[in-house]
Amino acid sequence: MNKGLRLEGVGRRYGLRGSWILRGVDLDVTPGTLVRVEGANGTGKSTLLRLLAGIDAPTEGRITGRPRTAYVPERFPAALPFTASDYLTHLGAVHGLARPAAARAAGQWLERLGAAAHAGTPMEELSKGGSQKVAVAQALLAAPELLVLDEAWTGLDAAARAELERAVAERTAAGGAVVFVDHDPRRLAGSPDATYTVAGGALDRRPRPAAATPGGPHVVVEVQGPPDAEPPADVVRLVTAADETAPGTVRLTVPASRSDVVLRALLTAHPPWHVVSVAQGSVESGDKEPGGVERGDPASGGVEPGDLAPGGVGPADVAPRSVPDVPRDEVPPDDVPRNDVPPLGTGSRR
Ligand SMILES: Nc1ncnc2c1ncn2[C@@H]1O[C@H](COP(=O)(O)OP(=O)(O)OP(=O)(O)O)[C@@H](O)[C@H]1O
């Protein structure tokens, strides 16, 4: 089963004589990658995302691969005749979860996004922000292999925006692919594995500046591992820099939005890595020496889950956060057709 997605010579136009919105688009979305799509208004970003999500079909060309896909559309149909919780539980079941697991995941995602108090609220009574949280939750419920986010951060409060960034990092760390459009150029800055610009119907890959270190808040994590071991691959692909500072000791520079995912991966690795210290800092472009305040104390034996103050950046963020845990046997089988049943009312079917 191919969990990646491939577009070959894809074109899309609306109506028989409509002008081509996209033409000759080739794109590989591989597992574990984060892809940003950008472009001026009306160039075809949402059109491309609908094709990736499987709720629209190309006029010409081929799309192959069948990752289990979830999609947050640019416009979410809020006026549905369900409470938030019932809607999400229903969607979870549609995505293949057993009903109790779907209800559990619905509650956990509403909690993570700060909307637990609205679980019993009818969808049509939700605020724009509340409704957007439900839109995001429905896409994250069943740990999709491909997550397609069309301006999904719009309308969320700051805490929910940060939570969605964390969820994106978790998805890619778990081997899922995420494709997103967002009007804010700082969104997940420095994190995408590839950035494409839609212009003139084509897709241009923007080169990633080779030596540039992404700006924004970073965390510096000092870790010690088994003799001669490299940090886990899941960790290495999420960090901005990994430098061996002494035999067996590695200093990781991590975008703050990925820090708890990285810490979790380190602490749950087999054998686990010892987190010696965690420091906050920010990295300006080209500045490879982020400063910061030491959060862990090497002399006291380092940092363990739960050591740090709640709200801080570090292992304290790791342990207590409730990550919807979908047991393997509750995840739909690989041969469920990609997005065969789209989120209710989120778009037309091919
Ligand atoms: N269902 C449709 N029927 C007809 N035309 C459409 C349809 N959907 C999109 N279009 C047209 O296709 C073009 C690209 O639209 P699309 O929404 O994909 O662009 P976009 O880059 O996402 O725009 P924005 O940044 O404003 O969201 C626009 O001219 C739009 O009017």
Automatic annotation (TrEMBL):
SMART domains: AAA. Gene3D superfamilies: P-loop containing nucleotide triphosphate hydrolases. The keyword Nucleotide-binding applies. Keywords: ATP-binding, Nucleotide-binding, Transport. Residues 282-350 are annotated as: Disordered. One of its GO terms (molecular function) is ATP binding. Residues 285-297, 326-338 have a biased composition (Basic and acidic residues). InterPro entries: AAA+_ATPase, ABC_transporter-like_ATP-bd, ABC_Transporter_VariousFunc, P-loop_NTPase. Residues 5-225 form the ABC transporter domain. It comes from the Bacteria. This is ATP-binding cassette domain-containing protein. It comes from Streptomyces fagopyri. The lineage of its organism: Bacteria, Bacillati, Actinomycetota, Actinomycetes, Kitasatosporales.
